C-alpha cells in the first residue's frame, strides 16, 4: 500500500531520547498552533509529493542494525486511518529487520485521538510516544494555544490520552512548547501538577523563526537560564509524592486508552 508520506529524514539524534531514528512526516493536522513550524505540511500538504514507502525502506537499509527506530510525526499522524497499516508495513519490512528485531516506532501526537493511541499501544505497534500538552487544561486556554475551537469533549479526549500514557504500557514523554506571550510560568507548573507522576515532561523553547503566526516573529523566546530553571522545577513537580494524574477525566470514555534532510521539505526545526 502507498501512503502520503511527505517528508523523510534518514537519521536524527534528537527525536527519541537516547536513540538514532529515521523520521517520517505525515500530512495534515486538526490543530493550528501559532508557533507551528510545519505549517505547510498542515495547511498545504499537497505542495509536497508523496515519497514512496519502498524508496524510504531502500534508503534505510544501509542503516540496518545502526538505527533504532522510526519517528512518525507530522502534522498529526493519528488522523490517518492508514496509520496502523503503515506501522505494520514498517515493522515487517524485511530490509529493516536486524537480528530478527523490527525497528522501534515512536509516535508524535497532540493527543486528540485517544482511541487510536490506545489501539496502537494495545497492539504493541508503538514503542515510545511524545504527546504535546499545548497549555493549561481549560478549554479556552487550550484552544487559544492550539489555534482552534475546543469544546469540553475535545479537552476530555486529550485528558484520556494523558491517562492512557500514564497507565504506563508504553514509554512516553509529555512536552510543551513555551511561548512567552501565550503561557505563564505559573501555568506551566500547574500543568506539571496536573500530570504529576508522569515519566517525563519536556519543555521546549519557542523559536520565532518560521512560526505559522507571523505575529510571533517579534516575540522573544524565554532565555536559556529561565528555560533551565523551569525544566528543573517541572522535573521536581512530576516526581512529587501522591503521584497520579490529577487530570483524570470523569468523561474518560476510552475502553481501558539529519543526514539527508527532508527530501521534499525542510522540517529541521520541528515544533509540534
Ligand atoms: S505544532 Fe503540531 S499539533 Fe500544532 S499545528 Fe503544528 S503539527 Fe499540528
Description:
The protein has 8 helices and 7 strands; from the N terminus they run ββααβαβαβααβαβα. It has a 7-stranded mixed beta sheet with strand order 1-2-3-4-5-6-7. α7 links the parallel β6 and β7. α4 runs parallel beside α6. It binds iron/sulfur cluster (SF4).
- CATH-defined topology of the domain at 7-177: TIM Barrel
Helix content: 25-40%
Uncertain residue segments: 246-269
**Strand order across the largest sheet:** 1-2-3-4-5-6-7
Which structural class fits the helix and strand makeup?
A: alpha/beta
Order of helices and strands: EEHHEHEHEHHEHEH
How many strands?
7
Q: Largest sheet, described in full?
A: 7 strands, mixed
Tertiary shape: globular
Fourth-tier CATH superfamily name of the domain at 7-177: Aldolase class I
Bound molecules: iron/sulfur cluster
Task: Give the N-to-C terminal Cα separation.
Answer: 27 Å
Total of helices: 8
